[in-house]
Amino acid sequence: MLPQGVESAGIESAGAAEATGAVLPGGQSLGGKSPGRKSSGAKSSGRRSSGGVAGAPGAAGGEAAAREHCLRLLTSSPRTRAQLADALRRKSVPDDVAERVLDRLTAAGLIDDEAFAQAWVQSRHTGRGLAKRALAAELRRRGVADETVNDAVDALDPEQEEHTARALVNRKLRSTRGADPTKRMRRLVGMLARKGYSPALSYRLVKEALAEEGADPEALPEPPPPSD
C-alpha cells in the first residue's frame, strides 16, 4: 500500500467503473456483469466456482469475479500488474482468465506500472528519505519491470538525493549527541545505508556533519573500499 497522499491515475476511475458497470472492449463490464445478462434467479450459495473465484459458474462468471476482485484491490490502493496477478493466483484463477482480465484493465488505464513507479519513487523519497537503490529494490519486489524501475529512479535528481541524505543526518545527529564520535559515525552511516545511500556519500556527509560539531575528521573511520 502506498503512503498517504499517493494516488495512481485511474484508481478513482476503477471505483467509478465498478459503480456504473462501464463496458470494456469485447462487451465485458468493469462492474462485474456483461451488459444485458439476466440473473438466473438462483440464490448464491457462496461456494467457489470451478475457476477458484466466487461467482457465477463458467468462464464468463469466473472472469467477471476475477475482474471484480481486481477492482476492489485497486480501489483500496494502487497495485502493479504483477501484484494483481499474484492476487488472482491466490484465488486459483486460471492463468488464461487472469491474463484476459489484466489485459483489459491495462487497456482501460486502471493498471499502469509506469505511473505506479513514478508515484512510488516520489512518495517514498519524500516521505521516508529512501535513495535510488532502496527504491529500485522495493519496486522490483512489487514486480515492476527493470526498464520501468530504472526510468522511475533515474528521474530522481542526484542533488535532491544528497539534500535528503544531509537532512536525515542532521535530524539524527541530535539523538546521538554525547556518544563517542566513531560510534556516532557508524550509527549515522548505518542509517543512511539502510535507506539505500552509497557508502561514499554516507561517509562524506556524516564526516562533514560531525566536523561541524567539533570532531576531528582525520580521526573518523574511512569508507570501506568498493567491492569488485
Automatic annotation (TrEMBL):
Domain called RecX third three-helical: residue spans: 161-204
Name of the protein in its database record: Regulatory protein RecX
Compositionally biased residues, Low complexity: 7-22, 37-51
Domain of life: Bacteria
Pfam family for this entry, one: RecX_HTH2
Domain (RecX first three-helical): residue spans on this chain: 66-105
GO biological process: regulation of DNA repair
Keyword Cytoplasm carried by entry: yes
Annotated ranges, domain RecX second three-helical: 112-152
Subcellular location per the Swiss-Prot or TrEMBL entry: Cytoplasm
Protein task: Modulates RecA activity.
Originating species: Actinomadura syzygii
The keyword Acyltransferase appears for this protein: no
Chain segments annotated as coiled-coil in the UniProt record: none
InterPro entries per record: RecX_HTH_1st, RecX_HTH_2nd, RecX_HTH_3rd, Regulatory_RecX, WH-like_DNA-bd_sf
Transmembrane segments: none
Assigned protein family: Belongs to the RecX family.
Keyword vocabulary terms for this entry: Cytoplasm
GO terms for cellular component: cytoplasm
Biased composition (Gly residues): 52-61
Disordered: annotated segments: 1-61
